[in-house]
Amino acid sequence: MQKNKVRKAVIPVAGFGTRLFPATKVVKKELFPIIDRDGRAKPVILAIIEEAISAGITEVGIVAQPDDKEIFENLLKNPLKKEFFDNLSPQNQEYSRYLEDLGSRITILLQEEQLGYGHAVFCAKDWVQDEPFLLMLGDHIYASDIAKSCASQVLNVYTQANQSVVSLTTKPAEILHTAGCVTGVWQELNSIIEVTQLYEKPTIEYAQQHLRVEGMAENEFLCIFGLYLLTPKIFDFLAEHINQNFRERGEFQLTYCLDKLCQEEGMTGYVVKGKCFDTGLPDAYRQTMIDFRNL
Length: 295
Ligand code: UTP
Fold this sequence. Notes:
The chain is an alpha/beta fold and 295 residues long. Helix content is 35%, strand content 27%.
C-alpha cells in the first residue's frame, strides 16, 4: 500500500450536544435532518460521510456512545424494512440500495465515557492503526466553491505536502473566543501556509500579539474550518494527555495536541475554497437549513 494514501475517515459523534438541548435528549445532533443539495432530507452524519466518500475515502469510523450504537447501526448498517422499501419512490429505492452499499464501509467505534473531542479521536486509534486519516467534526457540513469537494481539496494538499493538514477559513476577531486559531508563514498567499502555532479560543489581545498573519487585515485571523488530515502521530500526543490527565474545561481537547504535532512533524494550513456550515447550535442550525440547500 502507498504510504501516504488516505483511506480512512474518523467522525466523532459521541458528544451530548448540550447546546441543542432539549432536542438532543431524544435525537443526536448528528442525526438532525438537513436538506442536502440533491433535495433529500438527510441526517447530518450522512452528508458528512458523503463528503468523505467524495474525496476517495473508502472506510469511515464513527465514534459513538455505547447507548447510541444501535441507532447509528440502524441508519447506516441495517437494511430498510421490506414494507418501507416497497413504498419508496424508485429514486429513493435506488438511494436505499446505495445506502446499504455505503454501510459496508462504515465501522461504529465506541467512546465509553464522554471525556471530550480529543478523547473521542483517541478512541479511534486501534481502528486507524498506522495510517494518515481524515478527521471530520460530527456537526459541520461543507459546500465547496469549486468542482472539487472541500474534503477532496484537503486530501490533495496532504498528498503534495506530505505532512498533516489543518483546513482553515478567515474569521473576524470578534468570534475568536469560539474558535481554534492558527498562525504561520504563507507558502502561497491566502491559500497554503506553513503553520507555526495553533491556539484554542484565544482572547483578541493574545491573537493580536501572537496570531497575526502577514498580509491579512488587522481584525482578521485564520481559524480552523473543521476538516483535518492527520498522521497517526497525533495518537501519541493524545495518549500523553490522557495518561497525564491533562484536561481543559474538564475535557481532553484536540487543539493542544495538534499544536504538539505541528511542532514535532510540521503542519500545513490550507484555506479551503468553500464554506463550512455549523449544525451544533440552534441559530446556526436554523441558518444552515436555510442556506445549505440554496447554494
Ligand atoms: P462539541 O464540542 O460540539 O461537543 O464536539 P458536544 O458535546 O457534541 O456539544 P455541546 O458543546 O455539548 O453542545 C465536537 C464533536 O466531537 C464529538 C461531538 O459529537 C461532535 O461531533 N464529541 C464531543 C465526542 O465524540 N465525544 C465527546 O466526549 C465530546
